[in-house]
Design a protein that fits this description.
Keywords: DNA-binding, Phosphoprotein
InterPro entries: CheY-like_superfamily, NreC/VraR/RcsB-like_REC, Sig_transdc_resp-reg_C-effctor, Sig_transdc_resp-reg_receiver, Tscrpt_reg_LuxR_C, WalR-like
Helix content: 40-55%
Low-confidence stretches: none
CATH topology of the largest domain: Rossmann fold
Number of strands: 5
GO molecular function: DNA binding
Strand order of the largest sheet: 2-1-3-4-5
Number of helices: 11
CATH architecture of the largest domain: 3-Layer(aba) Sandwich
GO biological process, one term: regulation of DNA-templated transcription
Order of helices and strands: EHEHEHEHEHHHHHHH
Largest sheet: 5 strands, parallel
Structural class: alpha/beta
Protein name: Response regulator transcription factor
């Protein structure tokens, strides 16, 4: 059975070749290609893609927020990020949002196809430079020990706080109540044995 693919990419100069690539593969089936994520919940529910190829910089709703929406709905669709961004902030935000792979635009077509198949097989494909960033982030044993104290949600909230998000912005971004964010941050400080955000950042994030 062919793997069903949906594309979310606003640049037609990338979206069209990507469409053609998917349509050339006998074991892949293109079920939709869209320039924004305004109706992604409805589209994914109706089209039932196995893999969503997602750009990050999209109009109205960016790819990271759209990925969170799909995870919040418990969609079976796996998200493969296809973007030009390689900075740590976008990489970790995408992974924390629930993306299963991260490929930088410019990779050979065969690698994109292979990444789709890896995701279906249970893998987490990444461009080598991205995989290295992830490995380096957890390279320090002491650092890993501190990170392991936090739940994935707590880590996500602390990362957003470090990136300059207010408590209200974090609540909106993670689809929880403001009081829940405040409770998470209180728990983070307790687990890390710190009394402020800068102290928590120092323990968890490399400068």
């Amino acid at each position: 059975m062919a793997i069903k693919i949906a594309i979310y990419e606003d640049d037609i100069n990338f979206r069209q070749p990507l469409r053609e690539l998917i349509q050339m593969e006998n074991d892949l089936e293109l079920v939709g290609a869209f320039e924004d994520c305004l109706e992604i919940e409805k589209q994914v529910t109706e089209l039932q893609p196995d893999v969503v190829l997602m750009d990050i910089e999209l109009p109205h709703i960016n790819g990271i927020a759209a990925t969170k929406l799909l995870r919040a709905k418990n969609s079976k669709a796996e998200v493969l990020i296809l973007t030009s961004f390689e900075d740590n902030q976008q990489v970790f935000a995408a992974i924390l949002a629930g993306a299963r792979g991260y490929i930088v635009k410019g990779e050979e077509n065969t690698k994109i196809v292979d990444a789709i198949k890896q995701i279906i097989a249970g893998g987490a494909p990444m461009t080598p430079s991205i995989a290295r960033k992830v490995l380096e982030f957890f390279a320090s044993p002491t650092h890993k020990y501190e990170v392991d104290k936090l739940t994935p949600r707590e880590f996500e909230i602390l990362k957003l706080l470090k990136d300059g998000y207010s408590y209200k912005m974090i609540a909106a971004n993670t689809f929880v109540e403001l009081s829940t964010v405040q409770s998470h941050i209180k728990n983070i400080y307790k687990k890390l044995e710190v009394h402020s955000a800068p102290e928590a950042f120092k323990k968890i994030f490399k400068s």
